[in-house]
Structures are given as structure tokens and as C-alpha cells.
Amino acid sequence: MALRQSPANRPNHYGELALKFEKRSGKTVVTSAYQLPPLRSSRALHFNQKNPAEATVYMVETAGGLVAGDRNKYEIDIGEEAEVCLIPQSATKIYPSFNGMWSTQNIDVSIASKASLAWKTEAIIPYDIAKLEAKTVINMAEDATLLWGEILAPGRAKRDEILQYNEVRTNYQVWIDGECLIYDALRFSPKTTDLEQLGLLEDHLYVGSLWFVTPKATEIDVKKLNDRLQETADVKVGTGLLDDKAVNVRWLASDLVLLKQEMDRVWEEFANFLYE
């Protein structure tokens, strides 16, 4: 009987998931799906009572995480007036880089006129001595809508494996009709940089980001939104309006449960605005 390989010694994976969505007969459907393991996706589900036309798809990473040298690539194409919600099945785990190689993840998204994408919040968890390079590029029409959330964790906190990864680099870009609206690059190297210093993480561990790009951004009262955000000793948060086209909310937190609760609450508030 063959022994199951541990993530540390299994062969490298080069996963790819390419999905194309279109609006047909009043509902969004998947018109093309290419899946290269370990990346998989569910069929399109239509259970959103607030928006029955929206297609919900669960994305699955069957390998259990990214090992050094692994590469995952996502290509999402959303056609005119299509409405999509993508949900990662679990957090993205980045295993130790014993060979010094990087784990990489690339996400390319295209959102056509009057279309929308909601990418549900999930965490990236880099393990001890992990190395991750992640890049997300979203190209969207001026009248399209985007709701996106993500969390960067310090590691496996329940195992006291906190800020022991080698390096994490993330690059998040949003382009509207060829012009760059958002360029958000983060680089954390806890083994060479004191992330607890003033102006960085200080006494917090988690970084949460929520982006809401919508033609109706100016209708959101950012000041009132900021007043409603729950700021405690464990969670710090701030919000802002970008070029009258996007609202960004960013959290620093030391309690993951509180962070997820707050992010889910704001997510639902933005989603309700989206479905009006």
C-alpha cells in the first residue's frame, strides 16, 4: 500500500482554474471551466434570495495548501451584466520552504460592463519559514462592481507559530478602463524586520482588507461607516474613499474571531448595498 506523502515531500503542483461567466435567460451561468488539479470548483449555485440571478461558485484547493515551488493560477472572466460570488472553501495555507523556493499565487480577473464580482473573505496562513508571492490583477469596466475581502494571518497562532515565516509579498491591483485605481503592495519579512515597531503591525497580528469598487461609491457615507466600525483594544480599523470610485476598509487585529465577525458585518452591509 502506498504511503500518503506529506506536504513537505510531495511533488510540486501547478494548479490552474479558469472560469468564464455569462448572463443567460436572467441568470448567471458558467460557460467555460478549465480545472487543473489541485484547483477545482463547484457548479454554479443560485441560492441568494436577495439576488437569484447571482451565480455562487465554491473554489477548492485539494492539495491542502501551497508547498515551496507550487504555483496556483486563477483566471476569472465575467461577461456583461453577469453577477458572480466566489467563495474559497478554506484558508490558503503556505507550507514551510525547506528548499528556499517561493510559493506563488496569481489571480487575474476581468469584469465587463454592468457585471459584478463578490470574492468572499478568507485568510492566507504562512507557516514557519514559508515564502509566498501573491499577485491579483483586476480589470473592470467603469460601471462594473467589485467586493473583495482578504486576511493575512501571522501563521498558526494556536500552535504559537507567530510571525515565523520568511517572507510574504502581496500585490493587489484594480484597473478601471485601463487606468489604475488601486495599487496595494505589502511586503512582510518578520525574520529581518521588526513588525511590532510603530507604523507597522505594532501589537497586532492580523491584517484584514475589504475593497468595494462601485459606480455608486459616493452614495456611501464613509464618515458614518467609520463611526459604526467597532474599534477595541484588539481591533483597530480605518476607512476611506478612493477617487469617488471605491471604499477601502482595513483592520489590524490581535483576535481573529473578532476580526472575522467585524469583516463579515461590513461585508453584508456592502453586499446589501450591492443588491439594492
What do you see in this structure?
- The chain has 276 residues and is mainly beta.
- The protein has one domain.
- The protein is built from two helices and 17 strands.
- It has helices spanning 222-228, 256-275, and strands spanning 14-24, 27-36, 39-41, 55-61, 71-78, 83-88, 92-94, 103-111, 116-119, 123-126, 131-140, 145-152, 167-176, 179-188, 206-213, 235-242, 246-253.
- Strands 3, 4, 6, 7, 9, 10, 12, 15, 16 and 17 form a ten-stranded mixed β-sheet that branches.
- Strand 16 (235-242) and strand 17 (246-253) form a beta hairpin.
Properties at a glance:
globular; 2 helices; 10% helix; 276 residues; 10-stranded mixed beta sheet; mainly beta; 7-stranded mixed beta sheet; disordered N terminus
Q: Mind sketching the topology for me?
A:
Blueprint: E1 14-24, E2 27-36, E3 39-41, E4 55-61, E5 71-78, E6 83-88, E7 92-94, E8 103-111, E9 116-119, E10 123-126, E11 131-140, E12 145-152, E13 167-176, E14 179-188, E15 206-213, H1 222-228, E16 235-242, E17 246-253, H2 256-275
Parallel strand pairs: 1-5, 4-6, 5-8, 6-9, 7-10, 8-11, 9-12, 10-12, 11-13
Antiparallel strand pairs: 1-2, 3-4, 12-15, 13-14, 15-17, 16-17
